[in-house]
Amino acid sequence: MIKLKHFIKLSIINLIIDSKSNIKNILIISCSFILFILTFSISGSLNKFINNYILNTIEHSSILIDYNENNFNDIYKTLKSNDKILEFYEYQTPIGGDIKNYDKFTNINKSDMLLLKSGFNSRTPYILSGRMFTENEEKVGIIPKKFDPTGEIGVNFEKEPKEYLDGEQFLGKTITLEFKSIEDKVIYYTFKVVGIYDAVNNMDYPSDIYIPYQDHKYLREQMYLTSQDNMYEVQPAKIIVALVDKQENVDTVLDELKNNNIYAYKKAEVGFLETVSNLIVRIGLIISIIVFIVSIINVSLNSISSIRKRQHEIGMLKVFGYKNIDIKIIIFLEILIINITSILISTIICKIIFMIIDIILQNNFSIYMSSFNIDINLKSILVSIIITVISILVLSIKNVRYITNINPIDAIKNKI
Questions:
Q1: d(Cα 396, Cα 327) in Å, to the nearest integer?
Q2: Terminal alpha carbon distance of the chain
């Protein structure tokens, strides 16, 4: 232990003596580590955000199946027998209606409108206050806590152009919407707000209103109903929506349905964010590898050059009884200290960068991105340590060969 402490002290002294060259090496290695940590931390944070928030929504656990009268029974039996499918029903597309009784509210305008939709009974949006309606209720609904009937705020990345309304001020109140059928017949729907839900974590629009399925279906039928013998003149698409128990099972269910000759597809895709995450990894990894290779080559050349300059010193150490293994340990410790210092500097710089990015995100991005936090990926630190060990071994091999061949007498004479 005493001998090791002596070697560490000697290594630090040697690094200080040749501080100019060693600082250069530390900066070069730090650049590669910074790129590496940034790449994996940002992509890792994006993937965490996608998996924990976006893919965890009801939309991303849902699939759609086109059907007709001929294959409905077969599809019904297949869906019913699949234990990964929790619930399914005939899909009703969302419908938008103008707020008829806007004059009853001080913060709603004549041009404002709401989008009505229905959901699954087995999995509903998270209720913040009030209650969720039951399956058999009529003319009731739940609205977002962060509420916007103007349509100016969407599910976007950029900062909201205006403030949200507080949905709780509408709790217990009645809202009347006005729709027009395909024949321009006016249809009214009045519902009571019984609950306030979290639209942000559910990735719903701030104007999305959930109402009972039967109400939603009835409104859709009325909108497509014509005056001729109560028959449909315009046939809406026939689609079944099914809820899969887990998002990670969606692809499995799609494959199982495909094997039964049933065409199904995801209701929602991640899209842009997933592409960005993959792009960051690929570009960042390529750049990191290139920079790291260049830094290893540069540090290796500088290390060999430094040892050649230190022939007299190495010769003196051998004269004083230091064995080749002792000198190798000293050189090994010098390289280790350089790499550890580089990792520490890289980690601190990355932490500062992430703090700045988080401040920018909070001040300039949408509330829908509030759950996206970037922090240092521990795996990237672990990989950096592994890279450090490998680089030490690579550099040591070259240096060890040179040190072993140094003749102490010749090294001292050359200095003289």
A1: 11
A2: 35
**pLDDT of 147 higher than 50:** yes
Q: Where are the beta strands (DSSP E) in 93-201?
A: 95-99, 113-117, 127-130, 140-144, 146-147, 165-166, 174-180, 186-197
Alpha helices in 200-271, H assignment, sequence order:
213-224, 250-259
**DSSP SS3 for 396:** helix
Q: Residue 122, Cβ neighbours under 10 Å: how many?
A: 9
Q: How confident is the model at residue 305 (pLDDT cuts 50, 70, 90)?
A: low
Specify whether 16 is located in the same domain as 66.
no
Q: In terms of domains, do 122 and 38 share one?
A: no
CA 349 vs. chain centroid, Å, equals: 22
Token pair in block for residue 152? 């100016």
User: For residue 314, is pLDDT > 50?
Assistant: yes
Tell me, what amino acid is at 356?
Answer: I
3-state secondary structure of 208: strand
The closest alpha carbon to 189, from 217, 153, 226, 149, belongs to 217
Which helix (H) or strand (E) segment is 350 a member of? helix 324-364
From CA 78, how far away is CA 76, in angstroms rounded?
6
Within this chain, do residues 145 and 227 fall inside the same structural domain, yes or no? yes
Domain span at residue 332 reads 2-55+273-415
| Residues 380 and 313 placed together within one structural domain of the fold | yes
- Rounded CA-CA distance 285/347 in Å is 17
136 Ramachandran zone, left/alpha/beta (phi>0; psi -120 to 50) = alpha
| End-of-domain residue from the set 221, 253, 268 | 268
Q: Within this chain, do residues 311 and 401 fall inside the same structural domain, yes or no?
A: yes
| One domain for residues 112 and 260 | yes
Q: 268, 301, 336: which is the final residue of a domain?
A: 268
Which pLDDT score, from 0 to 100, does residue 306 have? Answer: 64
pLDDT of residue 245: 93
Q: Do residue 285 and residue 382 come from a single domain?
A: yes
Sort residue 151 into left (φ over 0), alpha (ψ -120 to 50) or beta.
left
- Residue 343 main-chain phi, psi, to 5 deg: -65, -45
- Whether 121 and 254 map to the same domain: the answer is yes
What span, in angstroms and rounded, lies between the C-alpha atoms of 185 and 112? 20
Write down how long the chain is.
Answer: 416
State the pLDDT confidence band at 232, using cuts at 50, 70 and 90.
Answer: very low
